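User: Here's a protein and a ligand (calcium ion). What would the complex look like?
Assistant: Let me lay out the input and then the predicted complex.
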Amino acid sequence: MKDTLTGLDSYEIFLQKLEKEMQEIGDDRIIVVYTDIKHFKYINDTYGYKMGDKLLKEFVNEFMKASKNIACAARVYSDNFVTANRISDKNLSNEEFRNLIDQVNKAWEREFREKYLNSRLQFCTGISITDKNSRSLEAETAVSNANLARKVAKEMEHDCCVLFDQSMMEGIRREVEITSGIPKALAQKEFQVYFQPKMATDTMELIGAEALVRWQKPDGKFIYPDEFIPLIERSGQIVDVDYYVYREVFHFLAERIKAGKKVVPISLNVSRMHLNKMHILDYIKELLDEFQIPCSLVEFELTESIYLDNTERALELVDGLHNLGIKVSMDDFGSGYSSLNLLSKLPIDIIKLDRVFLKEGELQESDRIIISCVVDMANRLKITSLCEGVETQEQSNYLKEVGCQMQQGFYFSRPIPQEVFESFIDTNPKTVVRT
Ligand code: C2E
Ligand code: CA
Ligand code: CA
């Protein structure tokens, strides 16, 4: 059976052939190469499916030309391809083979990006190697190991070709442990909301805070969002965790208002996963109705990359939030491929400069220039600017000098638990109260 589009073997036939190659391995190595075309969807969306199909065929041609050692090849699905290569050359190390593939991938990237302008196409490859010591592996395991390495490659910025190694299995074990623990963690309130104050640059008053989630396991150990959020984004569970955080924050604000205590606006992070289903606006409306707090008391932060990945949906969300009277910020500005163009397209209220500009030690001249230009641009576009990751007085002073209106960082406070934040508000005489 053949794949009708590319003429390659079907995946089932591929597995049968691979199984046979592995049984007859002798002193050779069988190298399974699993490749995925990153940003291929862009081609279908921009140039249409016909062009997408053409690109896949061109790719397969290149793919087959590139190696003389291919024993079998298949399209697993969509833009995912797999080949098995038999290598007899004992002088070629595994790492050298990886380098070869890496070079081929990079050459394809240059070629295809030229042909399909603006496509950002990238070839991500995972490699698993079987030799006589590991030939008891099943063909399917060899492919799934290569696929796992490919997923690791996909998350890397530059390295697009990764060799499988056993430690990746540890990563999977941790992923399963985390994702399977989420329902219980939600039910048993293992998540806590921490708050990190935001200060006004001109007066050093407390003018708000960002809500940041923490997961404290029953044994007292913390799991930090940098570890668990990427994993539960993949599984889609982040949506429930975000909603949990939003509800806690609305509840917190409503309770303080009821008790006649001071309150400041709290900003909430929005995962990219919300853009898939877009239930988020309804949920926020529900919370506003249920807790009856002024809409000026909550803000939402969308990372720069969310806007870049899905500008239309992001725009819909920003408009929806604005219709509810809620402010929106662009988070982590400058951390990735910032598109200045986006700033004029999107009606955002606040731009949060990423902490990459404030590296440890003295402020670098180049960072000073960038910060002052971004702040200046934001001012002209009538967008409020906030710089995060402020750790020293020198940095804080510089932000004042260039007119950045708000600051957030360890210099003022780390993210703190609710009770500590409450005493921060109550004892900070300069708290700006906005209701
Ligand atoms: P973020 O939105 O960029 O949040 C700011 C992160 O920078 C926080 O890390 C904070 O602790 C850290 N930070 C603040 N000031 C400083 C500083 O002066 N120096 C340094 N080195 N770091 C500073 P945290 O709390 O570990 O959160 C990491 C990321 O996880 C957040 O980055 C955000 O993207 C995500 N996150 C946290 N809570 C939530 C949530 O409830 N929902 C979603 N979707 N994402 C969340
Ligand atoms: Ca944030
Ligand atoms: Ca940020």
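Summary: The radius of gyration is 26 Å.
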